């Protein structure tokens, strides 16, 4: 599901709200999650899951085309851990 599909679905289920207001709401939520992760925080949505940032150490990688060893720098990557309720609903 894309962000625009999410907004359309919310608009259909809440006809009393304008699509522009729903778009602002969805964008605000995503922006707050992003800002918190950039600052190194954690976002937990009970029943859905938790977003956090993990550190990846620098390492020696390999170019798959040429086989030449390359240096891969350390980086921070977003991580999502599924909540129990979501996992149970998906596995029904």
Brief write-up:
The protein is an alpha+beta fold and 92 residues long. It has three helices and five strands; from the N terminus they run ααβββββα.
Structural account:
The chain contains 3 helices and 5 strands, in the order ααβββββα. The strands form 2 sheets. It has a 3-stranded antiparallel β-sheet. Strands 3-4 form a two-stranded antiparallel sheet. It is α+β, with helices and mostly antiparallel strands and 92 residues long. The longest helix has 20 residues, at 19-38. The chain has helices at 3-13, 19-38, 84-90, and strands at 43-45, 49-56, 59-62, 69-72, 75-82. Helix content is 41%, strand content 29%. It has 2 domains: 1-39; 44-92, IHF-like DNA-binding proteins (HU Protein, Chain A, Irregular), CATH 4.10.520.10. The model has no long low-confidence stretch (mean pLDDT 95). Strand 1 and strand 2 form a beta hairpin.
Q: What is the CATH topology classification name of the largest domain?
A: HU Protein, Chain A
Radius of gyration: 19 Å
CATH class of the largest domain: Few Secondary Structures
Major sheet characteristics: 3 strands, antiparallel
Order of helices and strands: HHEEEEEH
Number of strands: 5
Q: Uncertain runs with pLDDT below 50, 5 residues or more?
A: none
Kindly report the spatial arrangement of strands forming the biggest sheet.
1-2-5
Shape annotation: elongated
Which range best describes the helical content: under 10%, 10-25%, 25-40%, 40-55%, 55-70% or over 70%? 40-55%
Structural class: alpha+beta
For the termini, the CA-CA separation is 20 Å
Number of discrete domains: 2
Strand percent estimate: 25-35%
Mean pLDDT reading: 95
CATH architecture grouping of the largest domain: Irregular
The CATH superfamily of the largest domain bears the name IHF-like DNA-binding proteins
């Amino acid at each position: 599901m894309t962000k625009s599909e999410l907004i359309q679905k919310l608009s259909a289920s809440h006809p009393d709200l304008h699509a522009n207001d729903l778009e602002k709401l969805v964008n605000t939520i995503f922006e707050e999650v992003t800002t918190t992760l950039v600052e190194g925080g954690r976002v937990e949505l009970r029943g859905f899951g938790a977003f956090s940032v993990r550190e990846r150490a620098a390492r020696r990688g390999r170019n798959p085309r040429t086989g030449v060893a390359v240096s891969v720098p350390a980086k921070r990557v977003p991580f999502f851990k599924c909540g129990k309720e979501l996992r149970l609903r998906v596995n029904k």
